[in-house]
Specification:
Layout (H helix, E strand, L loop, with lengths): L17 H17 L5 E2 L2 E2 L16 E3 L5 E6 L5 E6 L1 E3 L13 E4 L4 E5 L5 E2 L8 E2 L7 E2 L29 H35 L7
Parallel strand pairs: 6-7
Antiparallel strand pairs: 1-2, 3-4, 4-5, 7-8, 8-9, 10-11
């Protein structure tokens, strides 16, 4: 008896044993929909991780891979164009087999959504360009930016003040040199203070720190 492409359901029209085929179809639906079995290929569950790489597939076809990741066909073809719509739930990051770059897993042990970067390296990316993020219940904000976040170039180097010549008694030039270096040190502190306050404001806005007791 023919099956209804692309699934495993039997065509019951004009079937001699309508009841038996209907029961079989319900068993298949139960296995595929409720038990989340991998998609069958040639009568057995697929061992492929990721979308299919062979065969003809139709638009909006759903494919469940060997790890339970779910893909949707966005362009019909052989093998078609696929988009992952549900990550595979795993207890540990996969480290064997062929895994496509960009494959998504939900590590339920860590509670983390991860993306395969290749070579069994799994990245965790929070947020996207132009998006907003908020932690601990604060209103999500765009990525903070501003001149106050620029790196600080210190005027004083290590040991610069300690290396100044101080006579006994000190000369006017020596005192002026010490004064200039102290003022330079004060400028460094002010620049660092500006940067620290900018970082504090950004982390408070995003909810990473409360900013108070």
């Amino acid at each position: 008896m023919a099956t209804i492409a692309p699934g495993r359901l039997h065509d019951v029209s004009n079937a001699a044993d309508f009841v038996a085929l209907t029961e079989t179809n319900f068993e298949i639906l139960t296995a595929e929909v409720f038990k989340q079995e991998p998609t069958y290929v040639s009568g057995v569950p697929t061992t492929t991780v990721g979308p299919p790489t062979t065969g003809s597939h139709v638009l909006n076809e759903i494919w469940k891979d060997a790890l339970g990741g779910v893909f949707k066909c966005t362009v019909a073809g052989t093998p078609g164009t696929w988009k992952q719509v549900l990550p595979a739930a795993v207890t540990a990051d996969p480290a064997t087999g062929t895994i496509p770059t960009g494959y998504l897993v939900l590590n339920v042990t860590q509670g983390t959504l991860k993306r395969h970067a290749g070579g069994y390296s799994w990245d965790t990316v929070i947020g996207a360009t132009g998006g907003k993020i908020g932690f601990y219940g604060v209103t999500p904000v765009s990525q903070p930016a501003g001149a106050d976040q620029a790196a600080v170039t210190l005027g004083n180097t290590n040991g610069e003040i300690g290396g100044l010549t101080i006579s006994d008694p000190p000369t006017q030039a020596e005192v002026q040199a010490l004064r200039d270096k102290c003022e330079e040190l004060a400028d460094d502190v002010r620049s660092l203070s500006t940067l620290i306050h900018s970082l504090r404001s950004a982390t408070v806005a995003a909810g990473l720190i409360k900013g108070s007791a």
